[in-house]
Amino acid sequence: MSKEHLLIIGPPGSGKGTQAVRVASELGIVHLSTGDILREAVKNGTELGAKARGYMEKGALVPDELMLGLIGDELDRLGDSGWILDGFPRTMPQAEALDGMLDERRERIDRVILVDLDFEVIVKRITSRRVCPVCGAVYNLETLKPKVDGKCDKCGADLVIRPDDREETVRHRLDVYKEQTEPVIDFYRKKGNLVAVNGEGKIEEITAEIIRALK
Ligand code: AMP
Fold it and tell me: Cys-Cys with 59: which of 132, 167, 172, 195 at CB 3.0–4.6 Å?
Protein backbone atom coordinates (compact mmCIF):
# COMPACT_ATOMS: atom_id res chain seq x y z
CA MET A 1 0.00 0.00 0.00
CA SER A 2 1.26 3.44 -0.92
CA LYS A 3 1.40 6.03 1.87
CA GLU A 4 0.75 8.94 -0.44
CA HIS A 5 -1.53 11.76 0.79
CA LEU A 6 -3.40 13.50 -1.99
CA LEU A 7 -6.17 16.05 -2.34
CA ILE A 8 -8.44 16.33 -5.33
CA ILE A 9 -10.19 19.64 -5.90
CA GLY A 10 -12.48 20.77 -8.67
CA PRO A 11 -15.82 22.44 -9.24
CA PRO A 12 -18.91 20.32 -8.64
CA GLY A 13 -19.46 18.30 -11.82
CA SER A 14 -15.83 18.36 -12.94
CA GLY A 15 -15.64 14.58 -12.49
CA LYS A 16 -13.35 14.84 -9.48
CA GLY A 17 -15.29 12.14 -7.59
CA THR A 18 -15.00 9.67 -10.47
CA GLN A 19 -11.31 10.44 -10.87
CA ALA A 20 -10.67 10.19 -7.12
CA VAL A 21 -12.03 6.62 -7.04
CA ARG A 22 -9.90 5.63 -10.05
CA VAL A 23 -6.71 7.27 -8.80
CA ALA A 24 -7.19 5.65 -5.35
CA SER A 25 -7.52 2.21 -6.88
CA GLU A 26 -4.59 2.77 -9.25
CA LEU A 27 -2.29 3.88 -6.42
CA GLY A 28 -3.63 1.52 -3.73
CA ILE A 29 -4.73 4.32 -1.39
CA VAL A 30 -8.01 4.99 0.43
CA HIS A 31 -10.62 7.22 -1.23
CA LEU A 32 -12.37 9.53 1.21
CA SER A 33 -15.22 11.69 -0.09
CA THR A 34 -16.79 14.12 2.38
CA GLY A 35 -19.83 14.42 0.06
CA ASP A 36 -20.33 10.62 0.17
CA ILE A 37 -19.93 10.53 3.96
CA LEU A 38 -22.48 13.33 4.36
CA ARG A 39 -24.97 11.75 1.92
CA GLU A 40 -24.66 8.45 3.80
CA ALA A 41 -25.26 10.28 7.11
CA VAL A 42 -28.37 11.96 5.66
CA LYS A 43 -29.63 8.61 4.35
CA ASN A 44 -29.09 6.92 7.72
CA GLY A 45 -30.68 9.82 9.60
CA THR A 46 -27.68 10.29 11.93
CA GLU A 47 -27.14 13.45 13.98
CA LEU A 48 -24.50 14.61 11.48
CA GLY A 49 -26.94 13.93 8.63
CA ALA A 50 -29.69 15.95 10.29
CA LYS A 51 -27.33 18.90 10.76
CA ALA A 52 -25.93 18.75 7.20
CA ARG A 53 -29.07 18.04 5.18
CA GLY A 54 -30.51 21.57 4.83
CA TYR A 55 -27.19 23.04 3.67
CA MET A 56 -26.62 20.28 1.15
CA GLU A 57 -30.05 20.55 -0.41
CA LYS A 58 -29.60 24.30 -0.90
CA GLY A 59 -26.19 23.79 -2.51
CA ALA A 60 -24.53 25.58 0.42
CA LEU A 61 -21.45 24.41 2.31
CA VAL A 62 -21.84 22.57 5.59
CA PRO A 63 -20.29 24.71 8.41
CA ASP A 64 -16.53 24.33 8.87
CA GLU A 65 -16.73 23.16 12.48
CA LEU A 66 -18.88 20.16 11.50
CA MET A 67 -16.53 19.33 8.62
CA LEU A 68 -13.44 19.60 10.81
CA GLY A 69 -14.90 17.19 13.38
CA LEU A 70 -15.72 14.74 10.60
CA ILE A 71 -12.27 14.93 9.00
CA GLY A 72 -10.48 14.63 12.36
CA ASP A 73 -12.38 11.39 13.04
CA GLU A 74 -11.63 10.06 9.57
CA LEU A 75 -7.89 10.82 9.82
CA ASP A 76 -7.79 8.96 13.14
CA ARG A 77 -9.56 6.00 11.56
CA LEU A 78 -7.23 5.93 8.56
CA GLY A 79 -4.10 5.73 10.74
CA ASP A 80 -1.00 5.56 8.60
CA SER A 81 -2.55 4.48 5.29
CA GLY A 82 -2.29 6.54 2.12
CA TRP A 83 -5.38 8.52 1.12
CA ILE A 84 -6.95 10.85 -1.37
CA LEU A 85 -9.37 13.42 0.09
CA ASP A 86 -12.17 14.25 -2.31
CA GLY A 87 -14.25 17.34 -1.48
CA PHE A 88 -12.13 18.58 1.42
CA PRO A 89 -10.84 21.23 2.06
CA ARG A 90 -13.34 23.54 0.38
CA THR A 91 -12.73 26.76 2.35
CA MET A 92 -9.57 28.54 3.59
CA PRO A 93 -10.35 27.80 7.28
CA GLN A 94 -10.66 24.09 6.34
CA ALA A 95 -7.33 24.18 4.46
CA GLU A 96 -5.55 25.85 7.37
CA ALA A 97 -7.09 23.48 9.91
CA LEU A 98 -6.10 20.48 7.78
CA ASP A 99 -2.48 21.70 7.74
CA GLY A 100 -2.62 21.92 11.55
CA MET A 101 -4.08 18.42 11.94
CA LEU A 102 -1.46 16.93 9.63
CA ASP A 103 1.39 18.78 11.39
CA GLU A 104 0.28 17.23 14.68
CA ARG A 105 0.41 13.82 13.04
CA ARG A 106 3.76 14.59 11.38
CA GLU A 107 2.13 14.05 8.02
CA ARG A 108 1.78 16.24 4.98
CA ILE A 109 -0.04 16.62 1.71
CA ASP A 110 2.12 15.32 -1.11
CA ARG A 111 0.14 16.61 -4.09
CA VAL A 112 -3.05 18.47 -4.86
CA ILE A 113 -4.87 17.52 -8.06
CA LEU A 114 -7.04 20.19 -9.66
CA VAL A 115 -9.63 18.91 -12.15
CA ASP A 116 -10.68 22.04 -14.00
CA LEU A 117 -13.66 22.59 -16.27
CA ASP A 118 -15.62 25.47 -17.81
CA PHE A 119 -18.69 26.39 -15.71
CA GLU A 120 -21.17 26.20 -18.64
CA VAL A 121 -19.97 22.69 -19.53
CA ILE A 122 -20.50 21.82 -15.87
CA VAL A 123 -24.10 23.05 -15.71
CA LYS A 124 -24.94 20.83 -18.68
CA ARG A 125 -23.10 17.90 -17.16
CA ILE A 126 -24.61 18.07 -13.68
CA THR A 127 -28.17 18.56 -14.81
CA SER A 128 -27.71 15.37 -16.90
CA ARG A 129 -26.59 13.41 -13.85
CA ARG A 130 -28.78 10.64 -12.40
CA VAL A 131 -28.04 8.61 -9.31
CA CYS A 132 -29.30 5.35 -7.87
CA PRO A 133 -30.93 6.03 -4.46
CA VAL A 134 -30.39 2.37 -3.48
CA CYS A 135 -26.77 1.49 -4.34
CA GLY A 136 -25.32 4.96 -5.04
CA ALA A 137 -24.23 4.29 -8.66
CA VAL A 138 -23.87 7.48 -10.73
CA TYR A 139 -24.90 7.87 -14.40
CA ASN A 140 -24.94 10.70 -16.92
CA LEU A 141 -27.46 11.01 -19.74
CA GLU A 142 -24.74 12.53 -21.96
CA THR A 143 -21.66 10.46 -21.15
CA LEU A 144 -22.50 7.40 -19.05
CA LYS A 145 -26.04 6.30 -19.88
CA PRO A 146 -27.72 3.46 -18.00
CA LYS A 147 -28.39 0.41 -20.19
CA VAL A 148 -32.14 0.70 -19.60
CA ASP A 149 -33.60 4.24 -19.49
CA GLY A 150 -34.15 5.45 -15.93
CA LYS A 151 -32.97 2.19 -14.29
CA CYS A 152 -29.80 1.36 -12.38
CA ASP A 153 -27.54 -1.13 -14.25
CA LYS A 154 -26.34 -2.60 -10.97
CA CYS A 155 -29.54 -3.06 -8.96
CA GLY A 156 -32.46 -2.14 -11.25
CA ALA A 157 -33.79 0.66 -8.98
CA ASP A 158 -35.37 3.83 -10.51
CA LEU A 159 -32.72 6.52 -10.99
CA VAL A 160 -33.27 10.00 -9.47
CA ILE A 161 -31.84 13.54 -9.69
CA ARG A 162 -29.88 14.49 -6.58
CA PRO A 163 -31.62 17.50 -4.96
CA ASP A 164 -28.35 19.46 -5.20
CA ASP A 165 -28.09 18.73 -8.95
CA ARG A 166 -31.01 20.99 -9.98
CA GLU A 167 -29.94 23.88 -12.25
CA GLU A 168 -30.50 26.78 -9.83
CA THR A 169 -28.77 24.80 -7.09
CA VAL A 170 -25.86 24.00 -9.42
CA ARG A 171 -25.38 27.70 -10.27
CA HIS A 172 -25.38 28.49 -6.58
CA ARG A 173 -22.81 25.73 -5.90
CA LEU A 174 -20.58 27.17 -8.63
CA ASP A 175 -20.80 30.65 -7.03
CA VAL A 176 -19.86 29.12 -3.68
CA TYR A 177 -16.95 27.30 -5.34
CA LYS A 178 -15.67 30.52 -6.93
CA GLU A 179 -15.91 32.44 -3.69
CA GLN A 180 -14.76 29.89 -1.13
CA THR A 181 -12.83 27.13 -2.89
CA GLU A 182 -10.83 29.02 -5.54
CA PRO A 183 -8.76 30.73 -2.80
CA VAL A 184 -7.89 27.22 -1.54
CA ILE A 185 -6.52 26.34 -4.99
CA ASP A 186 -4.32 29.47 -4.96
CA PHE A 187 -3.11 28.53 -1.48
CA TYR A 188 -1.82 25.15 -2.75
CA ARG A 189 -0.57 26.63 -6.02
CA LYS A 190 1.65 29.00 -4.00
CA LYS A 191 2.95 26.06 -1.97
CA GLY A 192 4.00 24.52 -5.29
CA ASN A 193 2.29 21.13 -4.99
CA LEU A 194 -0.64 21.66 -7.35
CA VAL A 195 -1.05 19.63 -10.53
CA ALA A 196 -3.84 20.73 -12.87
CA VAL A 197 -5.62 18.58 -15.43
CA ASN A 198 -8.41 19.41 -17.85
CA GLY A 199 -11.68 17.69 -16.85
CA GLU A 200 -12.96 17.53 -20.41
CA GLY A 201 -12.43 14.28 -22.28
CA LYS A 202 -12.60 10.54 -21.70
CA ILE A 203 -12.64 9.33 -18.11
CA GLU A 204 -9.74 6.87 -18.67
CA GLU A 205 -7.60 9.49 -20.43
CA ILE A 206 -8.04 11.98 -17.62
CA THR A 207 -7.05 9.33 -15.05
CA ALA A 208 -3.96 8.50 -17.12
CA GLU A 209 -3.06 12.19 -17.29
CA ILE A 210 -3.40 12.53 -13.51
CA ILE A 211 -1.21 9.48 -12.88
CA ARG A 212 1.40 10.82 -15.32
CA ALA A 213 1.33 14.24 -13.66
CA LEU A 214 1.85 12.67 -10.22
CA LYS A 215 4.98 10.77 -11.31
P1 AMP B 1 -19.78 16.77 -3.17
O2 AMP B 1 -20.32 15.41 -3.41
O3 AMP B 1 -18.30 16.78 -2.86
O4 AMP B 1 -20.13 17.74 -4.26
O5 AMP B 1 -20.49 17.32 -1.84
C6 AMP B 1 -21.89 17.46 -1.75
C7 AMP B 1 -22.28 18.50 -0.70
O8 AMP B 1 -21.78 18.11 0.58
C9 AMP B 1 -21.70 19.89 -0.93
O10 AMP B 1 -22.47 20.65 -1.84
C11 AMP B 1 -21.75 20.46 0.49
O12 AMP B 1 -23.05 20.85 0.85
C13 AMP B 1 -21.35 19.25 1.33
N14 AMP B 1 -19.89 19.17 1.53
C15 AMP B 1 -19.05 18.19 1.08
N16 AMP B 1 -17.78 18.44 1.44
C17 AMP B 1 -17.81 19.62 2.12
C18 AMP B 1 -16.81 20.43 2.74
N19 AMP B 1 -15.51 20.10 2.71
N20 AMP B 1 -17.22 21.57 3.34
C21 AMP B 1 -18.52 21.94 3.38
N22 AMP B 1 -19.50 21.24 2.80
C23 AMP B 1 -19.16 20.07 2.18
Answer: 172
